[in-house]
Specification:
The chain is globular. A hairpin with a 2-residue loop joins strand 1 (about 30-35) and strand 2 (about 35). Helix 2 crosses helix 6. The termini are far apart. It has helices spanning about 1-25, 40-50, 55, 70-85, 105, 110-120, 135-145, 150-155; strands at about 30-35, 35, 130. The longest helix is centred in the first third of the chain and has 22 residues, at about 1-25. The relative contact order is 0.18. The chain is mainly alpha-helical. Strands 1-2-3 form a three-stranded mixed beta sheet. The structure holds heme C. Heme C binds near residues 54, 89 and 97. Keywords: Heme, Iron, Metal-binding, Signal.
Length: about 160
Amino acid sequence: MMVFKRSPLFAALAAILLASTALASEPGDYVVEDGKVDPSTYEGYLVYTRACMACHGPDGLGSSFAPNLIQAAERLGWAEFAGTIAAGREIQPGQVMPSFADDPYVMGNIPKIFSYMLARGEGGLGRGRPQIIESMQEETEEAADAGEDGNEAAEE
Ligand code: HEC
C-alpha cells in the first residue's frame, strides 16, 4: 500500500513541522478582528511608533524621506525585512536607514513590527493606534505584570 510505505517519512516530517510551529509563533503572525489586534501586533505598533515613525511616517505609510514599510514587508519577506533593520541600508545616497544591531529593544521586537506591517497590509488593519481584542487582553496584562513592557504605562 502506497500510503503505508510513505507514511513513516511523512509522519516524521509532519511531526517536525508541527513541533516547530507549535513551539513558537512565526514572525509575521497576526490576528485582526473588527479592527482590533492580538497583543503582539499591538506591541508592534508601539515599537514602530517609537523607533521608526519619525522617518517612515505614521502607521507605516512612508514619508518623503523613507519608504512605506507596509509594502516593504510584503515585498521583502521576513528574512530581508529583519536583515535590513539589523544591517541598515543606503541605496539612495544620503537617505540612510540606520542599523539597529546595537538596539536590543528594536532587535527583540522585529517580529512584532513585521506582524504590525502585515496586519496593516494584507490584514486590512486601519490607521492609528489599534485596540487589543478583548479575549486576548489577559496575555498582555500577564506580560506587563512580568515587567516585559515597562513603557506601557507611559504610553497610555
Ligand atoms: C533615521 C531615519 C530612519 C529610521 C529611524 C528608520 N528608518 Fe528604515 N529606512 C530609512 C531610509 C531613508 C530608508 C531607505 C534607505 C535606502 O534608500 O536604501 C529605510 C529603509 C528601510 C527598509 C527597507 C524598505 C524597502 O522598501 O526596501 C526597512 C525594512 C526599514 N527601513 C525598516 C525600519 C524599521 C522597522 C525601523 C524602526 C525600527 C526603521 N526602519 C527606522 C530611514 C529610517
